[in-house]
Amino acid sequence: MSFSTEALAKIAIELQSDIGHPDRFSRLIITLRELLGCDASALLRYEAHQFIPLAIDGLAKDVLGRRFALQAHPRLEAIARAGDIVRFPADSTLPDPYDGLIPGQESLKVHACLGLPLFAGQNLIGALTLDGMDAHQFDSHSDEELRLIAALVSGALNNALLIARLESQNVLMTNVSGDATTGAQEMIGLSAPVVQLQKEIEIVAASDLNVLIGGETGTGKELVAKAIHQQSSRAANPLVYLNCAALPESVAESELFGHVKGAFTGAISHRSGKFEIADNGTLFLDEIGELSLSLQAKLLRVLQYGDIQRVGDDRSLRVNVRVLAATNRDLREEVLAGRFRADLFHRLSVFPLSVPPLRERDEDVILLAGYFCEQCRARMGLSSVILSAATRAHLASYRWPGNVRELEHAIHRAVVLARAASDGADVTLKPQHFAIHGEPVSVVQPREMQTEAVNLREATDAFQRQAIMQALESQQNNWAATARALSLDVANLHRLAKRLGLKD
């Protein structure tokens, strides 16, 4: 065997030390990169017919936000089905899921590629992928050696997933997983505010308390409600959605509580309301602050006594419904202004949750961008959607007043523009694809252009970042020419670009 005992021992130690620490898998693949001499590596978790990245090395950061559905990625599907080490021919015609996602490598047409499926018993739980730019990079490593590494990693990954299950109802604490087959969205994020929100969701989901979810428009309050329901004892029963802002006053009571035939003009049959439909499940009342005071009083009665009365009916019906409410208003201020009932506010806010705005979770922007890129790729039938280094810096420098929803729409619009200008099915998003109505001003306005105060270091970094991006664009992404245009040594430019987040 070409691996030394010391090298294998180092892998084992990396796997077993700080077993619950989120950086453990990152340390592992860095160790593997050194041991195997690969240029890029990734540890992936398998769930719902897709691979979800847990840790990466040598790949663009947005890979952590991408979700690789097996049906869309033949190489990963081959790894999932193989049951053993997979060595892809250097000139394999199967598209590589990381094509365009290894910084400095525009194409992976000829390269070494290994896949190590990871099992717990007979169940596939993940995979290790290893890529090398030299076509013969892994020839010296035997299948027996690689199987040993796969066995070590499989055991560690399985232990980590078991610990996560014991700590919460989630398989992985940094995600609320969706089903790739249904296109369900996920809560993407590794930043401290999101991890804290995840913990609070896990705590309240296990109870049956009503929850008030606050946050700015576009932050993902509905995803929080879905996560609470999915992790609760009511998960097998309905999650019913109602947007209170879209309810005309004339039909609002009927929508909530139902009506009987003949209750009013047009009531030609009995109809169940949202509370009745959600019996034994969860009712999510979005934009709760828009409800009229009269409806607030009737909603309060349901929360207090657990019974409803259909419009036009003298009888009461018992319901068992958990209410999750969301608002972008400050309901305390609404109570003081007399627009929201204080007693209803206190009933709803037994366990309040606040969804952080995107500007408070900067490190999640690129992960979310990668997630939306992969969604667009699948929906539009593209081979790949890649973020250029300049685009990643561009996205990271914006404050996103519209939060995650604005980022999603910006990515979708940019993909449409980039596809229109592309000859094939491979799309690379560049800063100019984020223009407003053809204007040269970007939709992603740099932080230094905003009115709020920044310190001198932030302002200097922002100015340098913008100057480098503009010069790089004008020099067709040629770094040497860009260095000359900026009167910099090319090595110094590369170092500066890395520090500013323009290069990986």
Give a verbal description of the structure.
There is one protein chain. The protein is α/β, with parallel strands linked by helices. The protein has 3 domains: 5-167, 2-Layer Sandwich (Beta-Lactamase); 192-354, Rossmann fold (3-Layer(aba) Sandwich); 360-499, Helicase, Ruva Protein, domain 3, CATH 1.10.8. It has 17 helices and 19 strands. The protein has helices spanning 5-16, 24-36, 74-82, 143-167, 192-205, 221-230, 249-257, 274-277, 293-305, 331-336, 342-348, 365-380, 389-396, 403-420, 456-474, 479-485, 490-499, and strands spanning 40-47, 50-57, 68-69, 86-88, 112-120, 123-132, 175-176, 187-188, 211-214, 239-243, 258-259, 271-272, 282-286, 307-308, 317-318, 322-327, 353-354, 384-387, 426-429. It has a 6-stranded antiparallel sheet with strand order 3-2-1-6-5-4, sandwiched between helices. Strand 14 (307-308) and strand 15 (317-318) form a beta hairpin. Helix 1 runs parallel beside helix 4. The chain starts with a helix and ends in a 5-residue tail after the last helix.
Write the layout of secondary structure elements.
Blueprint: H1 5-16, H2 24-36, E1 40-47, E2 50-57, E3 68-69, H3 74-82, E4 86-88, E5 112-120, E6 123-132, H4 143-167, E7 175-176, E8 187-188, H5 192-205, E9 211-214, H6 221-230, E10 239-243, H7 249-257, E11 258-259, E12 271-272, H8 274-277, E13 282-286, H9 293-305, E14 307-308, E15 317-318, E16 322-327, H10 331-336, H11 342-348, E17 353-354, H12 365-380, E18 384-387, H13 389-396, H14 403-420, E19 426-429, H15 456-474, H16 479-485, H17 490-499
Parallel strand pairs: 9-16, 9-17, 10-13, 13-16, 18-19
Antiparallel strand pairs: 1-2, 1-6, 2-3, 4-5, 5-6, 7-8, 11-12, 14-15
Helix pairs in contact: 1-2, 1-4, 5-6, 12-14, 15-16
Organism: Scandinavium hiltneri
Pfam family, one: Sigma54_activat
Keywords: ATP-binding, DNA-binding, Nucleotide-binding, Transcription, Transcription regulation
